[in-house]
């Protein structure tokens, strides 16, 4: 695992939605759901575009997922696995939230 780098403030995140960010030169998608931050690859392997941050967040059978905005495949926020196609998976990045209450920052590392 690489070293953690600050990518944004928690206040930059949107509840139950994603935002794009860069970890060095790697495009990632950050999701803020139920007070927890998830970081996934922003590149949709089926649609071949960096769009995952625009996906729709939801839940399927208790699993938190993001649906690709292109072809609507669902990816598990915790492990990146595509529910419809077991051969497809998004890279998951380790996340830490650091800082004082109200000033928390999101730190992400390469896996």
What order do the helices and strands come in, and which of them pair?
Layout (H helix, E strand, L loop, with lengths): L4 E5 L7 E7 L2 E8 L2 E6 L1 E2 L4 E2 L5 E5 L2 E5 L6 E3 L15 E2 L1 E4 L6 E4 L3
Antiparallel strand pairs: 1-12, 2-3, 3-4, 4-10, 5-6, 7-8, 8-9, 11-12
What this model shows, in words?
The protein has 111 residues and is an all-beta fold. The protein has a single domain, classed as Rieske Iron-sulfur Protein. Helices cover 0% and strands 48% of the residues. It has strands spanning 5-9, 17-23, 26-33, 36-41, 43-44, 49-50, 56-60, 63-67, 74-76, 92-93, 95-98, 105-108. A four-stranded antiparallel sheet has the order 2-3-4-10, with no helix packed on it. A three-stranded antiparallel sheet has the order 1-12-11, with no helix packed on it. The protein has a three-stranded antiparallel sheet with strand order 7-8-9, with no helix packed on it. Strand 7 and strand 8 form a beta hairpin. It starts with a strand and ends with a strand.
Offer a concise description of the structure.
Helices cover 0% and strands 48% of the residues. The chain has no helices and 12 strands.
Per CATH, which architecture? 3-layer Sandwich
Summarize model confidence as the mean pLDDT.
96
- How many DSSP-defined strands? 12
Instruction: Give the C-alpha Rg.
Output: 13 Å
CATH class: Mainly Beta
Class per helix and strand makeup: mainly beta
Main β-sheet, spatial strand arrangement: 2-3-4-10
